[in-house]
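Inverse folding, one chain.
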């Protein structure tokens, strides 16, 4: 008998929330060997990193790398500075403007880290849980940004310039509603009780239930007709 084919490797940005965890499960279902990357960036909801570790373990990631980048030093966001996290907003209010929970250039930083990690582990596929439908108005979740970063990835790396492969940015949730995302994860056996979405958790780590992330999560589970 011949030796089994070597699985393709993929770096997956894993925050521990619904979207990134579902993205990781989708990547695993497509036959990739997972290299999970989480970022400790000084976020007030660092409890999400514990959730990311649980998800990575359950999905049997080959590695789970946690990189510390102090975006708190830059500030400019309710997630990394002393600003109030918006609470109790309606979906129309969320969509009205880019909210104060936007972290300046966060996905650009995260994808750059994922790209570096991908070069090191020999992966050319990078998965991110970006969503252009049920999202809070973040500009770095848009398709145009992801396409532009993919071009950059192939121009700015040794592996890309030497044509060892072509880097691809995968955003499988891009056109899905939150309910569709949750249903997809459940079909893949994802345990959402291990995930964390809240932007402003209590000291115990329990979700506040009123921030944009909590409300979008609750809405998604209600529309998917399952419990969160």
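Residues assigned per position:
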């Amino acid at each position: 008998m011949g030796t089994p084919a070597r699985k393709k490797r993929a770096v997956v940005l894993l925050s521990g929330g619904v979207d990134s965890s579902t993205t990781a499960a989708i990547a695993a279902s497509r036959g990739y060997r997972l290299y999970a990357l989480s970022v400790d960036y000084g976020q007030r909801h660092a409890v999400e990193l514990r959730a990311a570790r649980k998800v990575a373990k359950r999905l049997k990631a080959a590695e789970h790398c946690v990189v510390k980048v102090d975006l708190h030093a830059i500030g400019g966001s309710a997630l990394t500075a002393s600003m109030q996290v918006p609470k109790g907003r309606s979906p129309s209010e969320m969509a009205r403007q880019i909210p104060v929970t936007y972290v300046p250039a966060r996905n650009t930083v995260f994808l750059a880290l994922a790209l570096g990690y991908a070069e090191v582990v020999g992966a050319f596929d990078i998965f991110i849980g970006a969503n252009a439908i049920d999202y809070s108005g973040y500009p770095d979740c848009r398709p145009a940004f992801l396409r532009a970063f993919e071009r950059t990835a192939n121009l700015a790396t040794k592996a890309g310039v030497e044509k060892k492969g072509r880097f691809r940015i995968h955003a499988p949730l891009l056109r899905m509603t939150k309910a569709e995302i949750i249903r997809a994860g459940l079909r893949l056996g994802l345990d959402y009780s291990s995930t964390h979405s809240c932007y402003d958790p209590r000291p115990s780590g329990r979700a506040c239930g009123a921030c944009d992330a909590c409300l979008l999560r609750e809405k998604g589970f209600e529309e998917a007709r399952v419990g969160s």
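The two ends are 46 Å apart (CA to CA). The domain at 9-224 is CATH 3.40.50.620 (Rossmann fold).
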